[in-house]
Specification:
globular; alpha+beta; FAD/NAD(P)-binding domain; FAD/NAD-bd_sf; binds flavin-adenine dinucleotide; 8 helices; 7-stranded mixed beta sheet; single chain; FAD dependent oxidoreductase domain-containing protein; 16 strands; 2 domains; FAD-dep_OxRdtase
């Protein structure tokens, strides 16, 4: 058995069965006369699982016959990803650049563009305007981080020094903040604003990314390269041994439930945390919505703006 895992914003683990020899690997097979092939199972269709599927389809050698089975017990976005607030930035809540934050930020923007293109083309096909793509996908008005006490202010001021040029952090005073969100109170008269950060509508993004994966499969058949296949199975997987002999690799992206697989349980230093989300919709009889230029807000709790009349808290 081999285990390798990468912790980007989410975790994915690759599991190789002990009985299958590496001679089946695509790199080795490419050198031989036979058509190389790879069969993969991806468990979990959240941010991690769909990103893995997209990268496998996009980056595998062109000649490879690639069969991917995607399993999720609930459906696309059935776990934390589907209900997440969708706040997207490369920093900790104290605006410290995260480990591999720059790479994660670039990758996330890239995947988002790909998903947006799919959503755009589908809307055009059914004759809808693509002008509303922003409300479909998320709210691109930046994220504001108010300083809450002196210790917090000092820490935030320090952390700001390491911000990325592609996701800047500006220091704003009360007046500047009032222009963005009238009536917002700042305990210390200072807030940190990330104009390039935003929040996505997680379900819309995931559905569109799955569509992008399906498109990659279709494109590969047009260009006459190796055969590509992607199948979605709405099914719970209770142990990895169910798949023994069936796949060359099983990639595990089942989020907080990873410790429920007996083969993984207790082997990784993981700590889970619980999140609760509240979706607030402004009733039609209340006139004034969230300000047009108003950013989302990140603090001990957060407000993810989904539109002028819809907030996640
Ligand atoms: C309320 C809340 C708000 C959040 N807000 C944000 C935010 O604003 N910004 C941010 O960056 N992060 C946020 N997060 C964190 C973020 O949502 C998670 O880090 C991320 O979704 C994890 O993605 P994942 O793909 O690893 O796991 P998941 O999204 O949990 O995906 C795992 C998938 O595996 C499936 N699955 C599980 N067990 C099995 C099984 N045995 N067999 C088959 N399928 C299975 C599940 O149905 C699920 O679809 C939030 C989390 C919560 C709970």
């Amino acid at each position: 058995m081999s285990l390798s895992y990468s912790v980007s914003p989410t975790i994915s683990i690759r599991y190789a069965f002990p009985s299958r020899k590496i001679t089946a690997s695509p790199v080795h097979s490419l050198c031989s006369q036979t058509q190389p092939s790879l069969r993969c199972a991806v468990l979990g269709a959240g941010f991690a699982g769909l990103s893995v599927v997209w990268h496998l389809l996009k980056n595998s050698p062109k000649r490879l016959d690639l069969k991917i089975d995607l399993y999720d017990e609930v459906g696309i976005g059935g776990g934390a990803s589907g209900i997440a607030g969708g706040l997207l930035h490369p920093y900790s809540p104290k605006v410290k650049l995260l480990w591999e934050g720059a790479q994660c930020w670039n990758e996330s923007i890239n995947l988002l563009k790909i998903a947006e293109e799919v959503a755009n083309s589908r809307k055009c096909k059914v004759g809808e305007s693509s002008e509303n793509i922003e409300t479909f996908f998320g709210h691109k008005r930046g994220i504001l981080r108010p300083a809450m006490d002196i210790k917090n202010l000092t820490k935030l001021n320090d952390n700001v020094q390491t911000c990325l040029p592609s996701c800047r952090i500006e220091t704003l005073n009360t007046e500047e903040v009032q222009n963005l969100v009238p009536g917002l109170r700042l305990p210390l008269g200072t807030a940190f604003f990330m104009p390039e950060a935003f929040n996505i509508h997680s379900q819309h993004y995931l559905q569109a990314l799955f569509g992008a994966c399906e498109n990659l499969v279709k494109e590969s058949s047009t260009f006459g390269s190796g055969h590509r296949q992607l199948s979605f199975h709405k099914r719970s997987v209770s142990r990895l041994l169910e798949f023994e002999g069936e796949y060359d690799a099983v990639i595990i992206c089942i989020g907080a439930k990873v410790n429920m697989l007996p083969e993984i349980s207790g082997r990784l230093p993981l700590r889970t945390c619980r999140g609760v989300i509240l979706h607030m919709e402004l009733p039609d009889n209340i006139g004034e919505g969230y300000p047009d230029r108003g950013p989302s807000i990140l603090s001990d709790a957060w407000i993810a703006v989904q539109g002028p009349r819809s907030l996640h808290v």
